[in-house]
Amino acid sequence: MAGCSGVAAIEPETSLRQAELFRRRFELWGRYGLSAFYARSDDEVLDLGEDRLDVFATLFVYRLTDVIDAGFEVVPTYRSPHVTITFYDDVESGVARLLAVTHRTVSNPAYRQEAQERRVYATTTL
What we know:
By secondary structure, the protein is of the alpha+beta class.
């Protein structure tokens, strides 16, 4: 599947929080943003699942053109293959709009429950 963005499992509450944090961190830019990773093939999606996204049991995989056609901007950020999916509308509307974009869900064979538990612990203790 050429030109897709593999997005970690989108939980609405987590996505809302992440989008709001992005807007506060980059206030002058005036957008909300969600972290994602660009992948050129299903093999790259699985590699990302193992290397960067092992805390997620399910990965949402979008075609890049579908995300852009839905009115989002996909901006290369940090280090490749990291991207940020940005939008201007109300945070709840933007997240709901992204969830409505056609996508596939992929079970992440590299998912590790203990990695998720460490992530939750680190997030709640900061």
